[in-house]
Structures are given as C-alpha cells and as structure tokens.
Amino acid sequence: MADELPVFTEEELKEYNGQNGKPVYVAYGGDVFDVSTSKMWRTGMHMKRHPAGMNLSEELAGAPHAHEVFERFPKVGTLKLQELAEAEESHLPPIVAKLIERIPFLERHPHPMTVHFPIAFMVATPLFVILYLITGVRAFELTSVSTLGAGVLFSLVAIPTGFLTWWINYLARPVRAVTIKIILSFVLFLVGLAAFIWRMVDPGVLDHISGINILYLVLVFSLAPIVGIIGTYGAMLTFPVEPRKK
Question: How wide is the angle at C-alpha 203 spanned by C-alphas 199 and 207, nearest 5°?
Fold first, then answer.
C-alpha cells in the first residue's frame, strides 16, 4: 500500500538524531515518532539522558508520562522489535543479561525501589541520637541502633541494584555523578557498619560523651551529610536542570 509506514532497523533509526539538520525520531512501544517540534527534544537529547534515534521503551518506562505523550507527534514508522531487543541486551555483561533473563523483575530497575530504605534509615539514626542526648530517654538510643542496623542491611541491597541500573542505563560508562555516588555509597556503608559494630561492642558508648566516644558521634552524625550528597547527585541524574541563561 502506498500509505504504509516504513519499518526502521536500529541502525537506520540512529540516523535521525537531530544532528546536521536531521529530524528527531524516537521509538516507543514499537512505534517511531517524529518529535522534532518538541522543545524537550530540541537538541536531540531529552533531559540530558535520553538520546534521539533510539528505542526508549525501557528507559521511559519509569518516566512520569506514558505512550499517550507521543500521540501528539506524527508517527513515521515502526521498529523491528525482535532485532532491537537482541541489540539492547548485547551491551550488558553476559552474567547480568543471564540474570535478567532468569529474573524478569530486574528489567524494572529495582534500584529506585530499594535505595530509599538505607537513605531513610541512615538519616533517622543521627536524629534519634540527638533526641536521646536531649531527653535522656533510652528508647530513642535503642531506636537509633535499630535504624543504623537496618541502614547497613539495606545498603547491601541498594548498592548491587545501583550497579545493575548503571549497567542498564549508562552502559557502565564512567559518568561523574555515578562515580561519586558509587564511592560515597561504599563510604556510607563502611561508616554505618563501623558505628553499628562499635555500638554492639560497647552498649554504653553514649553514656559518657568524652574521649574516644566522641568519635562515635562523629561517625553517626556524618551519615546525614553523606546521604545528602548521594541524594543530590542521584537527583541530578533523574531530574537534570538546565542552567539558566543570563
């Protein structure tokens, strides 16, 4: 039929990346759309992380919009889904690709679902310690131990899922924000673990705030700013902000 839309391969789609006067095409849900008129795609890159000329079905699955957002733009073709699926999996380390094949749930990027737990628990720990120091109520100190232990435990889940998301979203490339998050995540885990072990060995560490015991407070209170920096760089990756033009 004369009005039949073309079928794009992955390599053909890459040519429509908005560069050198080319239109901006993206694939979503097996369809190819021309988003050249969108301000969000003006440079050929959406939110500094989604390039044009690509299939974004998986990457945009967690975005705050669905397929209908593309219905405002002309559909210019379809994508060879089977060929694309094989190409998308090829960038993953074999062991990761096999793990995802065995556990399809991992395709949904579990890191955003698990990272909030260590963040919340690690921030709560110094807050409960402060409440204990102000009130002298032992329940607050015991709660701080529980949140600290939970923060350390959930870090063992959040860190591996973070590496998985790094492989899937960024092809394990050395992105500065990701590198900082990786380093500080291990620092957070080790600081939390050291404080937790210390408290287990010396239950009365906060009974007398002097001498070496002050170091315990330093470890505990350092958890919040470390989490803050990790969260800041995580937000920069998820919600990049364009610099204001003067």
Answer: 105
